[in-house]
Structure formats: C-alpha cells, structure tokens
Amino acid sequence: MIRIDAIWLALGASDLRAGMDTLLARVVRELEGGARIHTAYVFANRGATRLKVLVYDGAGLWLCTRRLQQGRFVWPQSEAGAGAVTISQTQWDWLMAGAPWQHLGAQQNIAVV
Questions:
Q1: How many CB atoms lie within 10 A of CB 106?
Q2: CA separation (Å) from 80 to 3, 13, 43, 85?
Q3: C-beta neighbour count of 100 within 10 angstroms
Q4: DSSP the chain
Q5: What are phi and psi of 108, to 5 degrees?
Q6: Which residues are registered as beta bridge partners of 42?
Q7: Cα-atom radius of gyration of the chain, to the nearest Å?
Q8: Domain boundaries in the chain?
Q9: Mean pLDDT calculated for residue range 64-87
C-alpha cells in the first residue's frame, strides 16, 4: 500500500503532540533537499513509548502512530537533541520488535586473520 525505500529516525525526543505540518517542517529544516519520495520519517516521544511515522508518497503525506503498552523502543539519542540516522529495513524490523537494532549492520568481509 505504501512504498518505503528509506527510513530516517529523528534523534532524541520529539513533541508528538505535533501534527504532520510541524513534523514535516522539522524534516525540511534538518535535511538538505527536504522530504524525499518513498521515505519514512520516524519520531519518538521522550519515553520512547510512542512513535509517529511521516511518509511522503509523492502525492501526499501519511501520518501513522504506534504506542507500546509495555516497554519502550530502543531509540537513538543525541546530545544536541537534533539530527537523524538512516536505518535499513532489517534494523526497522528489529526496532519494532524492541531489539537492540543498532548492532545490526552491513555484513563485513573478513580481511585480516
């Protein structure tokens, strides 16, 4: 239904009372070139128990929310409270499962024994 080619996580906590226009303004302000087609922009609240996902599909914006009843998402932090990190689909799946997704990266070749 919604094609997503890239996933962007906003570092630190976001005020999730914000609507799609406020979240889109943050994306435009923090990323050169603004919002990209088929990209999910994900924001978390201070406790990392809620997420808002903003997706631009080329025709309009989608805004989705997810709230955990127990536990919290493993969310990246930033001292400045701003910035972003891009993650893979596999890392996204692990994030949604509550696992430590930061340890999943591209497979590395063994170069030295």
A1: 5
A2: 31, 11, 15, 14
A3: 9
A4: ----SEEEEEPS---TT--HHHHHHHHHHHSTT-PPTTEEEEEE-TTSSEEEEEEE-SS-EEEEEEE-SSS-------SSS--EEEE-HHHHHHHHHTS-GGG--PPPPP---
A5: -105, 140
A6: 9, 53
A7: 15
A8: 6-103
A9: 79
CA-CA-CA-CA torsion sign (26, 31, 37, 42): negative
Please compute the mean of the pLDDT values over residues 69-91 and round it to a whole number: 78
Q: Are 41 and 16 in contact (CB under 8 A)?
A: no
Mean pLDDT confidence for 80-96: 79
Phi, psi of 14, rounded to the nearest 5 degrees: -120, 150
Q: How far apart are the first and last CA of the chain?
A: 46
User: What is the per-residue pLDDT across 1-34, written as a single tens digit (0 to 9) for each?
Assistant: 788 999 999 888 899 999 999 999 999 988 777 8
- For 106, phi then psi, to 5°, come to -65, 145
pLDDT at residue 111 greater than cutoff 60: no
**Residue linked to tokens 């340890």:** 103
